[in-house]
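Changelog note: in this version the structure field was regenerated for every chain. One regenerated record is shown below for reference.
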Amino acid sequence: MYGNNIVSQSGAQGGSARADGEGASTSDRRESALPAPKFGDSLGIFTKSPVILTTKGFQRVHEFLLQDQSAKLLPKERVCNCLKKRIDKQKQREVKYNESRKKAHWANVQRCGSVWTCPVCAKQITEKRREELKKGLETWKNVHLGGVLLLTLTFSHSVNESLSSLLKRQKHAYKRFFENTRVVNLMKSIFVEHKIKGFEVTYGQNGWHPHNHVLLLTKYQVHNFELYRDELAKIWIECCTKSGLSAPSMEHGLDIRDGSYAEQYVSKWGIEHELTKGHVKKGRNGGFTPFDLLHYSMLDGQMNGRTSASLWQEFAISTKGARQLVWGRGLKKLLKIEEKTDEELAEETEQEAISLRTVDDFAFSLLCHYQLRHKFLECIERDYENGCFGNGETERLLIALLEHEIERLRLSA
């Protein structure tokens, strides 16, 4: 599916690191003539490319490396400063540690809160959205004794259609569908009282494939909903064509199922994962999620005559401001789910975290320059658990970085 010109880009060596660590970029790095130090073998540092190709495809890289790649491709977006720029410039960056989860994280750093373009924030946000959705569905079924159905709406598309254009027409079709008088009456017939709309996008041989998964919360358990499927499908096809979309087939345009087993990946991930984690899991039928495209952009991957990098940029522009999950008005309050924005979820500090150490600007600039922010956290985690905090892998990593940088400067003088 990808062209033969998928090649590994040079790594994060060479160039100069900013002493203040602010806005450290990976966009202007060039490969250094300096060989990788042997010490780096045990820590996996100073590698040419973080992406490893295998016969089965590529091994996924750490979300911090994906964040760096996204920042490189989106130089004007907030993801460039995420987990890099300080919140309080009068204080140094910190590393904090959650003892129950055994995880370290950066503190006194800004977070962009983008569920679409930042893999680090997306991981935190989608996990919390999944927890909200799980809690809400359990409350609806156990307290309100209601039922849940899963409605999927999709449409035909071609490789030459832009994502932004498809999304505009999809929005119009969705609005037409649920405002249709017959649909309103059919929803009443199966006792639908609330909706939760999930938004997902994949990319495949036929281009962009945006679609919606809609949770229909019913007053009672409904068992005859399949009887309405064909009529709903015909109305959906009509709404698509009136909105300028290519008509989907009767077979694939609309699907309605019991909420416990929508399709294979729903039963695997759980219905809440289907809605909130669609863009970070593997697409079906050969489709790739946007974060898959971001992975391939690190290898100069191409698809349908376009680079993965340009596809990622188009996705970022087209989805800016879009909501991944939309609850019906008043539903969160009814189910006792606290209203929080994506930005608020991303900025939530971990509970019961203790402060382990600060990191000065120069050391942090080197960690950013050589794309080792995540390795630094992993070293601290191991040192703390092994009882050698302050005299273990973390210090050896910093020493190796400083020695490597000194030697680089000496050779370039």
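Spot check on this record: DSSP finds 15 helices and twelve strands in the chain. Confidence is low (pLDDT under 50) at residues 1-16, 24-44, 262-283.
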